[in-house]
Design brief:
Elements: E1 3-4, E2 9-10, H1 12-32, H2 44-51, H3 62-73, H4 95-106, H5 118-134, E3 143-147, H6 150-166, E4 173-178, H7 183-191, E5 199-202, H8 212-224, E6 228-235, H9 247-257, E7 260-265, H10 275-280, E8 289-292, E9 305-309, H11 312-319, H12 351-361, H13 363-387, E10 390-397, E11 400-405, H14 414-431, E12 438-441, E13 444-450, H15 458-474
Parallel strand pairs: 4-5, 4-6, 6-7, 7-8
Antiparallel strand pairs: 1-2, 3-9, 8-9, 10-11, 11-13, 12-13
The protein binds pyridoxal-5'-phosphate.
Pyridoxal-5'-phosphate is lined by residues 89, 149-151, 182, 184, 235, 239, 264, 266-267, 293, 305.
Length: 478
């Protein structure tokens, strides 16, 4: 390949060859994914030995660089889209959105201001409208913004809540969240400069939902002490168990107390597209703001989060700045500058992948995929219950299931059960055949499977359980 280095260019032919190599590699990745091991492992020393070098003054042939990357970088990265990647929140992704991202990056579209890219802003408005409708938010008054992920959406929400409810002085403000709320919320609260004394972590009940009575007591006590309860964060689909808080009850409390009601639906909100999920999401439409995370269960590649708000003016009220160098691109009031609705000025064109994948597959295919995921987790639950070897610690909820090895007839101590289950997870991960890590529920170490990949089959799960059982048999003391 020939390069024109001083312009950072390749010839047209070379660009095509390069691009075809990339597309071929991506397609091969999708096609052969199932036959590969999902887990990559490597120590810092091993990675240093592969990659550590000074920034080269002289270039290398593009072929060589791309071959090296495919061989060494991609193979040393865990595949979160793999059907046997069950941990954290997998990222199933989809090819159409991958190509959409490539287009957005290829054209390097600036998705900050209307004047710079009216079509990009319009597609963000349109796709946000689709989401507002899906979640029952007001279409005209509502609004939102795409972010890099759920963490940034939560940060954007809490910043907005603080501005709307506290103005400039938040010295007496108090925020409420449950002990199952995602850690990104605490991070956001800390980023915003709240002190520890302003954060109330409310315990959850046996089903991991907000303990409502404790919450009410806490709010009342804070008021008596002259503090200002200003925001409550509920979760629709906790990361640990998929639990949805009592959204309608919490909405009522927030309304009565004049508290901003934020719902973190980063994990589970997308389930509203399925009939079972819709039941669980009752009350979601009452939130002041809602985090949705399309790079999870809306099957988008990283990075794509989203914040929806009931009143779009709350975003512009919070984030609008008017520097002189942006005067000329302000546009009129119907033309949204997304840099005025969130933290980022220069933003990639995230809406494109959402738009193209929904246009290509249709919402119905998304509904089917999500329903499949929820049903699969329920089938897995019933297999576990019938096995005699596994104990279901928390039933399948929004495609998450928590279980542990605890065979009938063996009387293991709690400590021993923790050790065996930790051992199983470590052995599975180091075999690289499945990504299955633990979490802790009610002080017990459990295995947690998150089944949001529509390409995961029941056979995949059965094979993984058989692998786990094999390791359990090998446990030194068993
Ligand atoms: C409930 C919940 N909220 C927020 C987040 C953070 O989202 P992200 O990783 O996209 O920043 C996660 C991630 O798993 C989550 O499960």
């Amino acid at each position: 390949m020939k390069r024109n280095p001083s312009k950072l260019e390749l010839s047209s032919e070379d660009m095509k060859t390069y691009g075809y190599q990339v597309v071929d590699a991506i397609v091969e990745h999708f096609d052969s994914q199932k036959n590969k091991l999902p887990v990559a492992m490597g120590s810092r020393e091993e990675m240093d030995s592969l990659f550590l070098e000074e920034a080269p003054e002289k270039g290398t042939s593009p072929d060589k660089v791309i071959d090296f990357v495919l061989e060494k970088v991609m193979t040393n990265s865990t595949d979160m889209s793999h059907p046997k990647s069950y941990s954290f929140v997998p990222g199933p992704s989809n090819y159409v959105s991958v190509m959409a991202d490539t287009l957005a990056t290829g054209f390097n579209i600036f998705s900050g201001g209307w004047v710079a890219s009216p079509a990009a802003a319009e597609l963000e408005i349109i796709t946000i409208q689709w989401l507002l409708k899906i979640f029952g938010f007001p279409q005209k008054k509502g609004g939102g913004i795409f972010t890099s992920g759920g963490s940034m959406a939560n940060l954007t929400a809490i910043t907005t809540a603080r501005k709307v409810k506290c103005g400039e002085d938040f010295s007496k403000a108090v925020i409420y969240l449950s002990d199952q709320a995602h850690s990104s919320n605490i991070k956001a609260i800390q980023v915003l400069g709240f002190k520890k004394e302003q954060i109330r972590i409310i315990p959850t009940d046996i089903e991991f939902k907000f303990a409502i009575n404790k919450l009410k007591n806490c709010i009342a006590k804070d008021r008596l002490e002259g503090l200002h309860p200003f925001c409550l964060i509920a979760t629709s689909g906790t990361t640990n168990t998929g639990t949805v808080d009592q959204l309608s009850d919490l909405a009522k409390i927030c309304k009565k107390e004049d508290i901003w009601f934020h719902i973190d639906g980063a994990y589970g909100a997308a389930a509203i597209l399925s009939p079972k999920g819709k039941q669980l999401m009752k009350g979601i439409e009452k939130a002041d703001s809602l985090t949705v995370d399309p790079h999870k269960w809306f099957f988008q590649p990283y990075e794509m989060g989203c914040l929806l708000v009931r009143n779009h003016k709350h975003l512009s009220h919070t984030f609008t700045e008017k520097p002189e160098y942006l005067r000329d691109i302000e546009g009129n009031t119907s033309e949204i500058n997304f840099y005025d609705h969130g933290i980022q000025l220069t933003r990639r064109f995230r809406a494109l992948k959402f738009y193209m994948s929904i246009k290509t597959f249709g919402l119905q295919e998304f509904r089917n995929a999500i329903s499949y995921n929820i049903d699969l987790a329920e089938e897995v639950e019933s297999i576990l219950r019938k096995s005699g070897k596994w104990e279901v610690v928390f039933p399948a909820t929004l495609a998450v299931i928590n279980f542990r090895y605890n065979p009938i007839g063996k009387k293991y101590s709690q400590k021993k059960l923790d050790e065996i289950n930790q051992y199983i997870s470590e052995k599975v991960v180091s075999s690289r055949k499945a990504l299955l890590v633990t979490t802790i529920l009610h002080s017990q170490i459990v295995l947690r499977m998150c089944l949001i990949n529509p390409r995961t089959t029941l056979d995949d799960v059965k094979e993984t359980l058989a692998l786990c059982e094999g390791f359990a048999q090998d446990y030194p003391d068993n």
